[in-house]
Amino acid sequence: MLIYLRVLKESFNFAISALKNNRLRTFLSLLGVTIGIFSIIAVLAAVDSLKKDITGSLSALDNSTVIVMRFKFGPSDIPRWKREQFPDVTYEEYQYLKKSLPDLEAISFALGVPGGTSIKYQDVTTAGVDVGAVTHEYYDIEAFELEDGRFFNEPEAVSGSGVVVLGHEIAKNLFGDSNGVGKEIRIFGRRATVIGILKKQGQSLFNNSRDGQAFVPANFARRVFGSKKGTVFPQIVLKPEEGVDNDEFVAMLEQQLRNMRSIKSGEVSNFFINQLQGFADFIDNITGQLNVIGLVISGFSLLVGGFGIANIMFVSVKERTNLIGIQKSLGAKNKFILSQFLFEAIILSVIGGMVGLLIVWLVSIVASQFTGDFEFVLSPLNVLIGTAVSAIIGLISGIVPAISASKLDPVEAIRTGM
């Protein structure tokens, strides 16, 4: 054990000596490893950060949540022309499912109203507000946190009262530091009273934070926009009771809705039941593909880096031929010489990899400063992967030079080196 620690120490000294004595050559050779590790870890960190942001955006909703609408989250086998003929889900269907569907913890009707809505308070106007038109049960489905006030109740939702719950940023733009609860604003050109302010959430990569949103009763929006297809995009959001089998729940939901729409056996359902778990799996699949593509591209950089390490080691063997001959004449075994050069190759490669990791870390810090609350993540796992990959590259690149060094004849090595 001690002899290998001694070999490791000597190899480290030789590696540092190579860096000092041949700075430019070593720098250019290690540049490939540095760029390769930087590329791989940058891809992994970017994909991990993207996945974390998407997961954070969906974290307010339980994975068991189901959304019924005429659109599908992912790809579909149904032709596009046929999907475009699907009818929107209706408020009446929401009421029907609310009464008849078993194992239901909460159900909400929601409208995707036209974006870019303006909200006005006295002489202050905030444009580009994303308004969610929902029924009162949506509060039980999504993990809302209120800073002030309350969410609208069932009578207000059913009657379509002019009440509104504002995101933190919208409230700040309209009212400044004063409390906006109880104040009257204009939304969709109509009066509405602010009854609640959401807690600050912070922005994400897709700018879908609750801070820039407002929520009104669905029936309030229905009176404004009507129910003409293409004007709004209705959806029914359902949350099954805890412990209920999701597949059985979805099957029952589909059967209930097919019965209400009088869809015959054998006919395709003219609606889609989107499960958040399925969407999460779809996101995992996409991020997995991005990882593979990035790793393949980065692999070419590592290939160049591997050739660079091999070049350094071949030169190192040539420069130390005389020393190798002396070591072998004094009794050094082949595996000792082999280990010495392998350790040196690995140490050089890891140094290049660590530089690449350092650059990724610096870039992630700088990038996070320019992307608001979106945070680039350099996880310990990615650091471990980067270090391991660089060590493996060093091992593979150094194996041939190390074998050639270990097989040198001591007499010929001393004579060649003189």
Automatic annotation (TrEMBL):
Its main location: membrane. The chain crosses the membrane at residues 27-47, 292-315, 336-363, 383-405. The keyword Transmembrane applies. It is a multi-pass membrane protein. The keyword Repressor does not apply. Residues 26-255 form the MacB-like periplasmic core domain. It is found in: Cell membrane. GO terms for cellular component: plasma membrane. InterPro entries: ABC3_permease_C, MacB_PCD, Macrolide_Exporter_MacB. Residues 296-410 form the ABC3 transporter permease C-terminal domain. Keywords: Cell membrane, Membrane, Transmembrane, Transmembrane helix. GO terms for molecular function: transmembrane transporter activity. It comes from the Bacteria. Belongs to the ABC-4 integral membrane protein family. PANTHER family: ABC TRANSPORTER PERMEASE YTRF, MEMBRANE COMPONENT OF TRANSPORTER-RELATED. This is FtsX-like permease family protein. It comes from Christiangramia sabulilitoris.
